[in-house]
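Methods — Computational structure assignment.
A single polypeptide chain was analysed. Its primary sequence is given first, followed by the predicted tertiary structure written as structure tokens.
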Amino acid sequence: MPDRTWTPPEPYDLRRSLLVLRRGPYDPAFRAERDGTVWRATRTPLGPATLRLVPGARVGATAWGPGADWLLSRLPALLGAEDDPGAFVAHHRLVAAALRRHRGVRLIRTGLVLESLIPSVLEQRVTTEDAYRSWRRLLKWFGEPAPGPGAGLGMYVMPDPRTFARIPSWDWHRAGVDGKRSAAVVRAVRAARRMEEAATMELPAAMARLQAIPGIGPWTAAEALQRAIGAPDAITVGDLHLPRIIGFALGGEDGADDARMLELLAPYTGQRHRAARLVLLTGIAPARRAPRQRHANIARL
């Protein structure tokens, strides 16, 4: 049961910095306690591990499992030590206010690509609720209980690449994942080594590496690399809601598309993902123009 501490800069928001790793409120691989303690179950190159993080002037970390030492050796990067928020300059009053209010939020870096890539693939073309449900089912059916106290908390580590590749089509269907998304996941895990190499690349090369897999486009690649390498410019394009939110918040307009979003974010080139995240943290968004979209329950078809 190795332990480590890390002294963060002031201010520092542990929970909000790491919350991007949570895939829904019932994610079996992530747990946030009311006292600010954060738990995560993950699969490292050395095997599964459970990590407990306790906030404070010094963040306390305890890890269990074969991957414990690997996790703790990379703790500062995970918590945002390699992030440089000082390089960011706000060009809009709203963004400046969000920056002041959320100065403790850092861009994290897990160093693990598949861990973020697979759930991002699951989120393609479906509601987030459907994708979160599929993620939970896959982890509980094919993953393994998290090491140490994580198992007692009901946490699970995601399946290894070999297990993902061997999930039969009917179980993908039962989990609510259609054939296009399951095929993309299988192609990615069969190239697991090359996918994980993207964690050591600069953003353009990493984006190209992930998009070399059929079924993985710029939206999915950006979503994965925001978490895996903490890329401040990994702006998500092709999203159903983000362009409208950015257009409304920064331009006072409704109906913005990707091109307009990128135009509004042009002053933040090199930091566009950070700027978009700050806008999202404000909670400002245009009113819905139609009822929430409903999707068929694939598992029942």
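Note: DSSP finds 15 helices and seven strands in the chain.
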